[in-house]
């Protein structure tokens, strides 16, 4: 008699279900629900369908039935995967998978958890519930996408599976009286097969390309999203891709054995150890290694190099040795090696196989094997050279050669020729380093360095090298590297050991091998794993073999000459005729039909290096344009007679006297001094000379020279205004100079003689304002304003030479102390930017009223001290023996040893960092003035001689019309700007900038906060923003502009809407918040242009592209950082021509890594300091230097942290806290019996026992509490638990979110908050012990709840959208997408490589992945 299981086996080919009992009727309420949701009662089918079309298994099992499936069928159905949300459960432990009868098999259960729907009849969203009850409760606490209340429809339909030797017996009980969820998880076997087929046909396509579909020659597109809705998720496609690519290595040993079986003789040698190599060669390849000598071309020998991009791993190399084929008239590979690194051992194995292969081929044809056969052209890699030498020695040693090892080593060195292209590239690189090579002499250095390749005798070579080092001493380390014996013998003729005939017959570079790499990539692609790559290499070699076979029978393999590039070189001077020289390309773009209209033509701006080269070519002895002499060349002083320099043989005293008196006469003639013999300060004339220059010459021509001696300051005045009148400010249009500083006895007492403290306080920006008696608004001695005036002096720039004069030095209270150094800012600024003053010298004065004689004491190097006294000692300075800076230049005024009859009059300091330190200080001061006093300074960083422009950037102020400045005699010529406060509008009213014809105050208001009748602004209005702001809008809106949803009528921030979609909406346009709309298509369609499409880029003004809610880059110092635009203001007082002065409220990206010297970034930024992603704008992108920040793709999402806890950071703190408790944690994990534990030592167990909590299907107790432990900390603790608790990594489901991990939370909280808990216990006069500590930690976990996980990270969202446009490399992005940021401006902050890790979907398939990307 047959067992019923055997009868079922006979029916296994029948895929129909076996009914057990009649299906239950659907209740009226369920029928109405099904009808509302579109359920078909007959077929029970509901969108979305899996799309699998699998008749073997329905992933939506329903009704009462039984099925028997073989293991093959189970595998085809992906273990009978279901789309229903099921809670897995175990059965009894008596069954076994090896049982013969299904009834004795291993029993498992699946319980349907139902679905989550909302109470809105028109909503079609059906949510998949989570498997844990706590997760479901969290889902229900949120609102539906339509804003309605969610509810859980429980199901409870159960499936029972019996796994036994013959397969799986499946029993389904019950009908699902609920709709199908709109989110499915699984792919069927057929769907997965279709997906894998598309991936294999498109191996280079990323997730985005696979979803978008691929183009075929017929124009059709095939997308993986048509397979199943599961594959609409780009992250899911990425995960499937990673899993699929990982399959190729799961059975690598079997695959490799099968590969060798199918391709006999292809793999010559393989080694899978720490040094792994696989050497391949076809018979055609070995036949090309030994060829006849070609006398008329330098194409003999072997060229060897390594390709770095062929294999999937960036550290793996493809080493290729190629020879020239006369038949094909090109270079062909002779041997190729996969290497998992580039060590000498890798190269040794490659070259040893190469030598043996060539020797076998020679012996096969009866040819002699000699050293010259192995001549190689290589680069200067030490590993390659050593590997070649070791292989050469081993080869001849195995053949019992009579030469010693030293002789073989010398012979190997004589077979290597270095790549001259590498040397030439290095020469070009070094000549561009202006700190090493003077730009004016760069061409001279290049020609002389390249000439070393042509020198034949050693004496001449040494002379040229010595001459080169004498003229360019900073190149010594570079030249020494090239002159090492191992390098020089491969490159320079006087050192070469290779036979001259062989050296000249071989190529001069490895360019042939570089071209081979490009040809390889173009033929078969790149980034392969080992097995796929070996197959592709074979295909690549077969292409050469097929062409050789065709060529041997006369078939043409190309049109035209074989080496057209050589003809192009002779005719055009370059291998590609279309690649014109840069100067030729520039001239060809010139249009004679238009006037000068570029910044270079109009402003005549040039780079420093170009100016320097031009100046040197015109007159090497003349001064630079930036020198002081050139700036006063047109001054009346320059017309006076000049005097020759002192000649050693002439009367020095007489010449000095003549020069001194002549200079004084010039000063008197120009009224800089009153009389030649008048008593004046030693530096007083300098400031007056600069002031005279300002009257005689344009300020821009002397600005750079003046800043060498002058500080740049501004006086900010502000007054509270007359009662009822507006507050007003006065500020200069440009900073005014201060040449030197005079200190008195009063200041000495105030600062206790501390000169450094006085200077730091002088330049401090955050100082209190000084009050005045009367406002500056006076007319004819009548005060027009009775407000309270104040003023602040701000120093925006400091001089390179700081000059300080002391007052009455004979006064006993004048106790100034002269320090050796003065640090204007911080020690860090001193170390990084050399922002520190060093004492240079002292000026001494004879106090006799009628004499006014000055002498000086100075030090040039900070060590030796010199004394100079006019005509004494023949006019020469004298070295003071045993004098130091400390003993003769610094100290108290009265203690410094002075010459007889003289006293210290002044001191001179020099800024160590020069103009660079000046610029850094200016950036620091300008940023601080903007942040603290709303003083905006506009500087042209490209033109150092341009004078800064000052303005006031305070909100709700407007510049006063000069015609209204009635208290001034001539308002049109005033150098100051006055501002007045203007009425400010309701901050909740939305404003937008107008167009070019309108003023910026023109308002396009979109849904302002209009209050209903009887409702005041103090009344509440519902605010619910996706950023998490919830409650009364007056309290939580934060002063931002808001907008109301037309559906739910809740208010939210405009700046929090995706992509700025709520900004500048048409007044009649509808707006739906994210909670009411998942599609932006609900907004009114925009009008389409009737113009035809064009390839020309449409340029839209920047001010129209900057909108609230969009990401942008903001300038801070000289770098640009990402921000989210919140709202603009200050539009009322500005004309349309001043758009760059519109101010934006911004939120800086939290991952910005600002330089510490800049302090906190400002909350407001002028529009002139903002740019967007500069889409398709290559020129602008090249001018932007990016500051460092954490990329969006490197920023963990909250929802991913806990799930991917193994990627969390390792914390040493957790080792200190939890390692002593490993035994107790393991005990909680392994022993589920709670009664054996003490409740005092385990508060979590006490909670479980008191709450009578039941374990779940795997025997774990799910605990929701995690206190104020953030998601990041949660993930860190989970990783520690998995890596340190024995057995934890294999049973994550038992502790993640369960009792053992929560006890670890308790221990962490107890440790971190122990001192706080102890204070609480002492305040209650209770006993303090470890048990009490754990109880308080557990209580802290229970009363602190995690934040709402459904709050959107609007800043991260905004940054992701911004970076996607900034770094997209595609045809649409154009040349601007090809890593253009900062190429003309310089290095990014801290030499940051901004392109590391760019997601695959941002780079088109035809583009090469940036170095350091995620696939490297």
Can you put this structure into words, describing what you see?
The chain is α+β, with helices and mostly antiparallel strands. The chain is built from 46 helices and 47 strands. Helix content is 32%, strand content 15%. The strands form 12 sheets. Strands 21, 26, 28, 29, 30, 31, 32 and 34 form an 8-stranded mixed sheet that branches. It has a 7-stranded mixed sheet with strand order 11-12-15-14-13-16-17, with helices on both faces. Strands 18, 19, 20, 22, 25, 37 and 38 form a 7-stranded antiparallel sheet that branches. Helix 10 (344-364) packs across helix 11 (382-398), helix 13 (420-431) runs antiparallel to helix 14 and helix 39 packs antiparallel against helix 43 (1299-1312). It is globular, with a radius of gyration of 41 Å. Residues 1-54, 580-591, 605-650, 985-1019, 1078-1097, 1344-1350 and 1409-1416 have low confidence and may be disordered.
């Amino acid at each position: 008699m047959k067992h019923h299981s055997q009868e079922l086996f006979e029916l296994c080919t029948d895929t129909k279900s076996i009914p057990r009992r009649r299906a239950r009727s659907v209740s009226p309420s369920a029928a109405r629900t099904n009808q509302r949701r579109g359920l078909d009662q007959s077929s029970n089918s509901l969108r979305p369908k899996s799309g699998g079309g699998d008749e073997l298994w329905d992933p939506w099992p329903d009704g009462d039935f039984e099925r028997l499936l073989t293991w093959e069928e189970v595998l085809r159905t992906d273990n009978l995967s279901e789309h229903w949300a099921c809670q897995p459960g175990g059965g009894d432990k008596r069954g076994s998978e090896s049982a013969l009868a299904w009834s004795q098999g291993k029993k498992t259960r699946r319980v349907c958890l139902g679905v989550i729907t909302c109470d809105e009849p028109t909503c079609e969203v059906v949510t998949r519930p989570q498997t844990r009850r706590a997760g479901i409760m969290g889902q229900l606490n949120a609102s539906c996408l339509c804003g309605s209340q969610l509810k859980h429809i429980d199901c409870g339909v159960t499936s029972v599976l019996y796994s036994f030797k013959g397969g799986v017996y499946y029993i389904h009980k019950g009908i699902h009286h609920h709709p199908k969820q709109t989110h499915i998880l699984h792919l069927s076997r057929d769907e997965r097969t279709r997906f894998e087929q598309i991936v294999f046909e498109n191996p280079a396509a990323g997730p985005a390309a696979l979803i978008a579909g691929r183009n075929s020659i017929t124009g059709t597109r095939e997308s993986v999203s048509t397979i199943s809705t599961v594959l609409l998720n780009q992250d899911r496609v990425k995960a499937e891709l990673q899993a699929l690519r990982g399959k190729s290595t799961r059975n690598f040993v079997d695959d490799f054995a099968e590969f060798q079986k199918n391709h006999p003789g292809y793999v010559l040698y393989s080694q899978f150890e720490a040094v792994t190599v696989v050497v391949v060669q076809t018979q055609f390849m070995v036949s090309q290694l030994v060829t006849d000598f070609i006398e008329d071309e330098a194409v003999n020998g072997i060229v060897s190099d390594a390709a770095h991009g062929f294999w999937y791993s960036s550290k793996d190399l493809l080493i290729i040795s190629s020879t020239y084929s006369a038949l094909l008239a090109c270079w062909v590979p002779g041997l190729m090696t996969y290497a998992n690194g580039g060590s000498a051992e890798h190269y040794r194995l490659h070259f040893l196989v190469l030598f043996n292969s060539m020797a076998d081929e020679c012996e096969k044809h009866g040819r002699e094997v000699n050293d010259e056969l192995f001549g190689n052209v290589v680069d200067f890699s030490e590993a390659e050279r050593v590997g070649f030498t070791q292989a050469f020695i081993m080869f001849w040693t195995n053949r019992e050669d009579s030469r010693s090892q030293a002789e073989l080593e010398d012979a190997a060195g004589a077979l290597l020729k270095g790549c001259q292209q590498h040397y030439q590239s290095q020469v070009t690189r070094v000549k561009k380093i202006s700190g090493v090579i003077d730009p004016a002499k760069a061409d001279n250095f290049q020609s002389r360095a390249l000439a070393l390749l042509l020198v034949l005798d050693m004496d001449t070579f040494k002379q040229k090298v010595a001459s080169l080092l004498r003229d360019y001493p900073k190149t010594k380390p570079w030249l020494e590297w090239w002159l090492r014996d191992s390098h020089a013998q491969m490159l320079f003729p006087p050192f070469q050991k290779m036979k001259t005939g062989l050296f000249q017959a071989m190529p001069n570079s490895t360019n042939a091998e570089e071209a081979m790499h490009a040809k390889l990539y173009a033929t078969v692609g790149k980034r392969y794993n080992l097995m796929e790559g070996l197959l592709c290499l074979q295909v690549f070699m077969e292409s050469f073999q097929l062409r050789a076979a065709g060529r041997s029978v006369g078939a043409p393999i190309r049109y035209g000459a074989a080496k057209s590039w050589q003809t192009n070189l002779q005719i055009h001077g370059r291998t590609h005729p279309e690649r014109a020289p840069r100067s030729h390309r520039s001239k060809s773009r010139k249009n004679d039909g238009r006037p000068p209209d570029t910044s270079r033509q109009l402003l005549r701006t040039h780079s420093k290096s170009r100016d320097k080269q031009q100046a040197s070519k015109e007159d090497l002895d003349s001064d630079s344009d930036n020198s002081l002499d050139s700036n006063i060349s047109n001054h009346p002083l320059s017309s006076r007679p000049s005097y020759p320099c002192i000649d050693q043989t002439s009367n020095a005293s007489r010449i000095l006297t003549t020069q001194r008196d002549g200079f004084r006469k010039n000063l008197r003639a120009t009224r800089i001094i009153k009389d030649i013999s008048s008593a004046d300060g030693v530096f007083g004339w300098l400031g007056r000379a600069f002031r005279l220059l300002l009257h005689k010459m344009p300020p821009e021509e002397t600005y750079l020279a003046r800043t060498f001696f002058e500080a740049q300051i501004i006086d900010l005045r502000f007054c509270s205004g007359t009662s009822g009148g507006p507050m007003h400010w006065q500020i200069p249009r440009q900073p005014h100079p201060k040449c030197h500083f005079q200190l008195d006895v009063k200041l000495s007492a105030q600062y206790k003689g501390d000169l450094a403290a006085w200077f730091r306080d002088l330049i401090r920006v955050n100082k209190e304002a000084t009050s005045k008696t009367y406002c500056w608004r006076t007319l004819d001695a009548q005060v027009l304003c009775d407000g309270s005036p104040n003023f602040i002096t701000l120093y925006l720039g400091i001089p390179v030479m700081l000059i300080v004069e002391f007052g009455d030095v004979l006064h006993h209270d004048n106790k100034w102390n002269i320090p050796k150094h003065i640090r204007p800012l911080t020690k860090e600024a001193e170390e990084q930017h050399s922002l520190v003053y060093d004492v240079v010298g002292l000026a001494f004065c004879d106090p006799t009223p009628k004499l006014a004689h000055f002498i000086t004491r100075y030090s040039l190097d900070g060590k030796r001290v010199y004394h100079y006294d006019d005509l004494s000692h023949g006019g020469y300075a004298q070295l003071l023996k045993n004098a130091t800076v400390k003993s003769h230049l610094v100290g108290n005024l009265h203690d410094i040893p002075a010459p007889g009859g003289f006293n210290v009059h002044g001191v001179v300091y020099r800024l160590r960092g020069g103009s660079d330190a000046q610029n850094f200080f200016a950036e620091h001061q300008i940023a601080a003035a903007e942040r603290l006093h709303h003083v905006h300074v506009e500087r042209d960083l490209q033109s150092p001689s341009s004078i800064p422009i000052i303005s006031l950037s305070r909100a709700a102020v407007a510049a006063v019309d000069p015609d209204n400045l009635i208290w001034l005699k001539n308002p049109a010529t005033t150098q100051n700007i006055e501002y007045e406060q203007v009425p400010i509008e309701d901050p909740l009213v939305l404003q937008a900038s107008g167009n070019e014809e309108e003023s910026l105050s023109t308002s396009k208001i979109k849904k302002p906060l209009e209050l209903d009748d009887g409702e005041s602004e103090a009344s509440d209005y519902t605010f619910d923003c996706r950023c998490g702001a919830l409650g009364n809008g007056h309290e939580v809106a934060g002063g931002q502009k808001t907008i109301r949803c037309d559906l739910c009528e809740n208010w939210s921030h405009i700046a929090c809407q995706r992509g700025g979609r709520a900004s500048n909406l048409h007044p009649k346009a509808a707006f739906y918040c994210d909670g009411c709309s998942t599609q932006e298509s609900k907004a009114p369609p925009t009008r389409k242009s009737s113009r035809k499409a064009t390839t020309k880029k449409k340029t839209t003004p920047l001010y129209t592209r900057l909108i609230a809610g969009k990401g942008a880059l903001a300038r801070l110092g000289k770098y640009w950082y990402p921000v989210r635009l919140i709202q603009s203001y200050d539009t009322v007082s500005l004309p349309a021509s001043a758009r760059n002065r519109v101010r934006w409220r911004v939120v800086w990206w939290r991952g910005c890594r600002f330089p510490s010297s800049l302090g906190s970034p400002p909350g407001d930024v002028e529009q002139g300091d903002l740019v967007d992603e500069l889409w398709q704008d290559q020129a602008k992108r090249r001018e932007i230097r990016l500051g460092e920040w954490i990329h969006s793709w490197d920023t963990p999402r909250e929802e991913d942290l806990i799930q991917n806890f193994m990627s969390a950071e390792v914390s040493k703190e957790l080792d200190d806290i939890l390692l002593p408790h490993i035994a107790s944690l393991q005990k909680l994990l392994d022993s589920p019996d709670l009664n054996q534990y003490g409740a005092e030592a385990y508060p979590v167990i006490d909670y479980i026992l008191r709450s009578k909590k039941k374990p779940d299907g795997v025997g774990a107790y799910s605990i929701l509490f995690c206190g104020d432990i953030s998601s990041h900390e949660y993930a860190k603790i989970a990783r520690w638990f998995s890596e340190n608790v024995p057995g934890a990594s294999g049973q994550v489901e038992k502790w993640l979110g369960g009792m053992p991990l929560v006890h670890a939370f308790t221990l962490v909280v107890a440790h971190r908050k122990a001192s706080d808990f102890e204070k609480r216990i002492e305040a209650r006069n209770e006993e303090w012990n470890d048990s009490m500590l754990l109880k308080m930690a557990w209580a802290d976990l229970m009363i602190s709840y995690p934040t709402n996980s459904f709050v959107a990270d609007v800043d991260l969202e905004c940054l992701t959208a911004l970076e996607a446009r900034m770094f997209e490399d595609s045809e649409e992005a154009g040349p601007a997408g090809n890593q253009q940021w900062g190429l003309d401006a310089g290095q990014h902050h801290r030499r940051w490589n901004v392109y590391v890790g760019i997601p695959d979907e941002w780079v088109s398939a035809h583009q090469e992945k940036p170095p350091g990307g995620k696939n490297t």
